[in-house]
């Protein structure tokens, strides 16, 4: 067996692992990277990238039938579903070189295409190689969670790991799960000509502000997505090529089934016990992302925090500091944004209104501004939606946006919250006209309405200045 000694061993070549590997090797560390699956991890191969590519295909199909208000005669889109999937694969192939083994070896990283398994506190075996490392970073990510629904294991079902390989257009797609993945795929498929039914055991978009979620759900239903909430899937059967999901609210039959009910951290192959690393549903870490083994850190989905690609990258950047320089660093969560890429989009950073009320009570002010009062939204007929900004003592603590380009607009509020800026920083901004970005400025301006325009004292001062001033 080959033996290697290295400064930093990274297990997993997704967003978090690649961030650590690239940063560490370029700053002079000897870095070894293990990956038993695809370079680029879930996001590139099965998640963010392919889903957004399919959403883009659905957007173009939808646009062909939505031009009447603009004087453009609607036509029925002729969808080549297999060609849409080839667009997905081409998108992955275009981005893949950035995450490739060749690129990282070019940076100086030693890449071993094997899964890693601990043999002791600082040693990992990968195939016929044993690696002893000064510091180890777990970045093994997560995979789709498939619930133990009776009969499901006997029926061909898809998850985000293989739905993008399906080349035949589903006649009727059943989606179990009304979270971001399920809803994005539901809208993309209905726009590409499929019938779609979403079956959700509780509330669709259950982690988002209900008022904002309602904006998106109304649009999805208007486009033809059947959304059944409070319907726990109890049994799945298949007869004559048709799949039926039985729930407490009735049975739903379709041609294909997609399971999108959550994620499960990849910890089983690591033999964590041998390294003294505690875990349950994910690896246990502190705010410094260190595990119960002081030599080992965990980043991204396997660390059990918010499960987003940008969080994994942020975690990777965070652990570089203690690993390379011995300096303290902690990972925050209050400034992390997330987006669901439906149309309209749904975006959040910091506290929702309900969370902010629970935490801050009467100190909370909620600033609101609707899309239908924004001139650019009116011109493009994208007037559904609104922004809400939660403010405590002049500082935003959260922002929720439902509407066109919400994912782009939320970045400003992520910047504000990350840096502890006051609401005046946005109110003082000059936004170009006409842009959707004015929505954020107008929302910020609402903070000053009762303090300036509705204030008797201000009006009295203005009156005195006009009468007696220079």
Automatic annotation (TrEMBL):
It comes from the Bacteria. Keywords: Disulfide bond, FAD, Flavoprotein, NADP, Oxidoreductase, Redox-active center. Its cofactor is FAD. Pfam families: Pyr_redox_2, Pyr_redox_dim. InterPro entries: FAD/NAD-bd_sf (IPR036188), FAD/NAD-binding_dom (IPR023753), FAD/NAD-linked_Rdtase_dimer_sf (IPR016156), Pyr_nuc-diS_OxRdtase (IPR001100), Pyr_nucl-diS_OxRdtase_dimer (IPR004099), Pyr_OxRdtase_I_AS (IPR012999). Residues 7-316 form the FAD/NAD(P)-binding domain. Residues 336-443 form the Pyridine nucleotide-disulphide oxidoreductase dimerisation domain. Belongs to the class-I pyridine nucleotide-disulfide oxidoreductase family. This is FAD-dependent oxidoreductase.
């Amino acid at each position: 067996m080959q033996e290697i000694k290295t400064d930093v061993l990274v297990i997993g070549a997704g967003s978090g692992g690649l961030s650590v590997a690239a940063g560490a090797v370029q700053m002079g560390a000897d870095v070894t990277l293990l990956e038993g699956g695809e370079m680029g991890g879930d996001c590139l191969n099965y998640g963010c990238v392919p889903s957004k590519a399919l959403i883009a295909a659905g957007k173009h199909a939808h646009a062909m039938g939505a031009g009447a208000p603009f004087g453009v005669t609607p036509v029925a889109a002729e969808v080549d579903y297999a060609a849409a999937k080839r667009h997905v694969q081409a998108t992955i192939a275009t981005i893949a070189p950035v995450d490739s083994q060749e690129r990282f070896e070019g940076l100086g990283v030693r890449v071993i295409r094997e899964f890693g398994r601990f043999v002791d506190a600082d040693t990992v075996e990968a195939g016929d190689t044993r690696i002893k490392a000064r510091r180890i970073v777990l970045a093994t990510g997560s995979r789709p969670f498939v619930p133990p629904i009776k009969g499901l294991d006997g029926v061909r079902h898809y998850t985000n790991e293989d739905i993008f390989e399906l080349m035949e257009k589903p006649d009727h797609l059943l989606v179990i799960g009304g979270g971001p993945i399920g809803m994005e795929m539901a809208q993309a498929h209905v726009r590409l000509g499929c019938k779609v039914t979403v079956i959700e055991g509780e509330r669709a978009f259950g982690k988002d502000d209900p008022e904002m979620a309602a904006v998106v759900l109304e649009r999805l239903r208007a486009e033809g997505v059947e959304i059944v909430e409070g319907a726990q899937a109890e049994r799945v059967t298949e007869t004559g090529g048709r799949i039926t999901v039985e729930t407490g609210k009735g049975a739903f039959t379709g041609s294909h089934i997609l399971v999108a009910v959550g994620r499960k951290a990849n910890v089983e192959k690591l033999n964590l016990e041998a390294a003294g690393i505690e875990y349950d549903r994910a690896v246990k870490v502190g705010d410094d992302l260190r595990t119960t083994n002081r030599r080992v850190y965990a980043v991204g989905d396997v660390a059990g925090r918010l499960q987003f690609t940008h969080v994994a990258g942020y975690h990777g950047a965070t652990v570089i500091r203690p690993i390379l320089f011995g300096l303290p660093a902690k990972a925050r969560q209050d400034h992390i944004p997330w987006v669901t890429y439906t149309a309209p989009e749904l975006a959040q950073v910091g506290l929702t209104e309900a969370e902010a009320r629970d935490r801050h009570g009467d100190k909370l002010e909620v600033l609101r501004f609707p899309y239908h009062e924004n001139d650019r939204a009116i011109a493009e007929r994208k007037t559904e939606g609104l922004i809400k900004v939660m403010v405590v003592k002049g500082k935003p603590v959260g922002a929720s946006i439902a509407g066109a380009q919400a994912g782009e607009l939320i970045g400003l509020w992520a910047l504000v919250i990350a840096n502890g800026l006051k609401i005046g920083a946005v109110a003082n901004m000059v936004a170009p006209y006409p842009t959707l970005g004015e929505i954020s400025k107008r929302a910020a301006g609402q903070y000053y309405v009762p303090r300036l325009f509705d204030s008797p004292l201000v009006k009295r001062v203005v009156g005195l200045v006009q009468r007696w001033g220079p």
